Amino acid sequence: MKYFADIQVGDTIDVGRHTFNADEIKAFARRFDPQLFHLDEVAAERSHFGALCASGWHTAAVWMRLMVEYQRSEDDARRARGEPVAALGPSPGFRELKWLKPVYVGDTITYSTEVIETRASSSWLDWGLMTIRNAGINQNGEPVISFISVAFVERRERTA
Amino acid sequence: MKYFADIQVGDTIDVGRHTFNADEIKAFARRFDPQLFHLDEVAAERSHFGALCASGWHTAAVWMRLMVEYQRSEDDARRARGEPVAALGPSPGFRELKWLKPVYVGDTITYSTEVIETRASSSWLDWGLMTIRNAGINQNGEPVISFISVAFVERRERTA
Fold first, then answer.
1. How many C-alpha atoms does A143 have within 13 Å on its Cβ side?
2. Is residue B130 classed as helix, strand or coil in its secondary structure?
């Protein structure tokens, strides 16, 4: 992770991409969202979705994994260059999550992120707050998910 | 599901409860949130969380499963009483998700939901929009997650 001071509004990240297959869609749904249109092709055809599609929580959770992997590889690259690595703190949450289109079997979702706000905190002197807008777009260029999340990022030095 | 007309602001649901164990916390984290404090007890002790805890996405996904199971058992009970069952449509998303406290190994989270708004739609004549506030509270009475979600609920009859 960059230090808080090095993060700018407008910074963008190509987080990664993922192709959803039927087995993983069903496996996630069995554990966390056992609705028929996420579990069974025939039932899904008869549903308002028209075909088997991923739980919206699955689409969001894949973003999380890709984001963790992205940060890890960025941190590894920083260490390899001899640069310091800032800590990423806990996320207090997110807002305005929208499932804009279903994610069907075989869809490839490309996730990207843009920094939309940075804010110092008067109560957390070691940390700054970064607000990012996250988007997932399918192979036809259609947005399928968007949400805004907030995370604490370590400051290089306290501003007392 | 009740029909839209039968849902009132202030209605509450006891969605269910779940105790998080270390194996499932790690299994979710390996697939969707492979940060060390969700994967490894020793690393978690050294982290800002102080002990192994669940991914926030895991805490949210368990709500989804309990909600699906709750709706299914309610629908079964309605059918057993010979009552009609309304359809629950897709969710356009949710907002203001807050992870308020970590969920540690052995914590039992009780999820509840309150209807905070009902709204007819002029463009979706078969459906009404229901807004619900969802909360998860641990065994000490401390809130660990809260969010507001929106869902389409079938109307008994169109209002043209």
1. 12
2. strand
Put simply, whether A91 touches B (Cβ < 8 Å) is yes
pLDDT tens, chain B, 160 aa long: 889 999 999 999 999 999 999 999 999 999 999 999 999 999 999 998 999 999 999 999 999 999 999 999 999 999 999 999 998 888 889 999 999 999 999 999 999 999 999 998 777 788 899 999 999 999 999 999 999 999 889 998 755 4
What is the rounded CA–CA span in Å between residue B22 and residue B20? 7
Of all residues in chain A, the one with the smallest CA distance to B71 is A35
CB contact under 8 A, A92 and B99: yes
Interface ipTM: 0.89
In chain B, the N- to C-terminal Cα span, in Å, equals 23
Question: What is the C-alpha to C-alpha distance for residues A100 and B91, in angstroms, rounded to an integer?
Answer: 10
Contacts of A57 in chain B (CB under 8 A): 57, 60-61, 64
Q: Check residue A20 and report its DSSP letter.
A: P
The answer for A 6-35 residues in CB contact with B (under 8 A) is 31-35
State the DSSP H helix or E strand holding residue B94, giving kind and residue range, or none if neither: strand B93-99
Quote the CA–CA distance of B115 and A72 in Å, as a whole number: 40
